[in-house]
Amino acid sequence: MNLAQRGWLVPARRLQQVALVLARHGFGELVSRIGIGLAGLPKAAAAEARAARADDRLPLRVARVLADLGPTYIKLGQLLATREDIFTPPVTRALASLHSSVRPLPPRTAVRAVRQALGRPLDDVFAHFDPLPLAAASIAQVHRARLRAGTPVVVKVQRPGLARTIEADLAIMRLVARLLAEASPEIGALDPAALVAAFECSIHAELDFRNEAANAARLAALLGDADEVCVPRIHAEWTRATLLVMEEVQGRRLSDLAPPERGRIRVRLLRAFVRQILEHGVFHADPHPGNLLVREGRVVLLDLGAVETLERPLRRELSRLVRALVLGRGPKLASAVLALSPDGRAPGIDRGQLERDVMALVATSRQAGTGARVLTQMVALGRRHRLRMEPALLALVRALALLDGVLRGLEPARDLLVDLRREVARSVLRRLRRALTALARWFRRRFSPGAAAGR
Fold first, then answer.
1. Which H or E run contains 405?
2. 392, 313 in Cβ contact below 8 A?
């Protein structure tokens, strides 16, 4: 029975393209099982499919399929790469390697897209706009410009028609997720519909650049008193759903720093993230080297489309886990792991085995574990015990793993967990000083002569 007979309304042409790509990479049987009809597979594609079937590197084949399917599927693969609680390391590594390789928009198309987003001629806003992009990606591209007041800015403009393509792809993903769950109990256990729903939420947020502007404004306000980090200013008056106008930052890449400065910037970068995570519960979730610059000794956070929030209860449980890990307390660490999972109270969990596994993890971390390795092992441990993790927690683990790689690039001999202990202690002292200052202000207001006269 084909999909039309089953009552599915899907973008037929795009569905055929998806089916052809799947078949070309050796997934023709899967296409048949879920009922997507193919008008015919070209001979060259059939030969490719035979070669793909002979290649047993399934994770890499899946990554190639997603890359061939374009921006929506590349973004899906990048999101799934963060789900170490569901997928094994070979799968997440293959998906994490996905990158967009796209041609920039023609200059005339880019100018038209900016004009349409602004709703007015470019000359009304910009004294100069460079139609040739600084960089181009699957969602948007970035141009240099100068406001009429003379302020240099960068302009991020979304690719025209992208939202329509993504909506068509999301319809297909919802369909395929349900059909795969019906066709395979193993896949159904992963709840593919929920994964697609999470992705849909994520990509819709990314398509509205006003969310990125709000993230930048929020982080800038929270980090206003931090002398180690800053966020570029957003020009909100010219920012739209498909257009982001922000301060142009003249800074240096981390790779351009001289050795003496690398150590200082490493300390500042780690301190900035400890401050974000523990003190504010709001953090940059994609701290790769391309999103970090150094300006006048401060770390500048770029590309704030991926900013995550840790709610207070989650932060509290995370603090308990860190303390138990540092002190090597197996039972408390097991309790903390369970508390961080929605499935932590499930009756089928073997608490004794979990405690033994976490003690082995503690021993590993004390012997030769890097920060990234310990974090990955913690999530893998949860996966072995069938414990799901909160999406925000997984985003934090991924961000810390990325941060660990950046920090090691600055000073390879140092380890994230060792330095985290020092920065966590500094963070506790900062919070204590703020609490004492607030208490002193309250006492002055409450017991000042003016307050007493008012009573």
1. helix 391-410
2. no
Q: pTM, whole model, 2 decimals?
A: 0.73
Number of neighbours of residue 13 by Cβ within 10 angstroms: 8
Burial-class residue 149 by CB neighbours within 10 Å (0-12, 13-18, 19+). exposed
Helix H or strand E segment including 136: strand 135-136
Amino acid of residue 278: L
| Assigned token pair, 379 | 């999530």
d(CA 282, CA 308): 6
Cα–Cα distance between 416 and 407 in angstroms, integer?
8
**Catalytic residue (choose from 286, 357, 404, 419):** 286
Torsion sign across C-alpha atoms 390, 392, 394, 396: negative
The helix/strand count (H/E) of the chain reads as 19, 10
Structure tokens at 79: 């999101």
Report how far residue 253's alpha carbon sits from residue 266's, in angstroms, rounded to the nearest whole number.
13
Rounded CA-CA distance 356/348 in Å is: 17
Grouping H, G, I as helix, E, B as strand and the rest as coil, residue 64 is helix
Give the whole-number percent of the chain exceeding pLDDT 70: 81
Residues 6+ apart with CB under 8 A from 17: 69
As a whole number of angstroms, the distance between CA 444 and CA 151 comes to 44
Q: How many CB atoms lie within 10 A of CB 368?
A: 8
- Dist CA 364 CA 378 (whole Å): 11
Under 8 Å between Cβ of 417 and 374: yes
Q: How far apart are CA 99 and CA 67, in angstroms?
A: 8
* 169 tagged catalytic: no
Quick one: tokens of 355? 């405690």
Token representation of residue 43? 């001979």
pLDDT at 6: 47
The answer to whether the CB of 310 falls within 8 A of the CB of 281 is yes
- For the record, the structure tokens of 44 come out as 């060259």
How many residues does this entry show for the chain?
Answer: 455
Confidence of residue 165 (pLDDT cuts 50, 70, 90): confident
CB-based burial, 425-434: b 16+ in 10 Å, e otherwise? eebeebeeee
Q: CA 450, CA 444: separation in Å to the nearest integer?
A: 10
Q: Which two tokens stand for residue 261?
A: 């400065």
Q: What is the pLDDT of residues 293-330, one digit of tens each?
A: 999 999 999 989 888 898 888 888 877 777 776 666 66
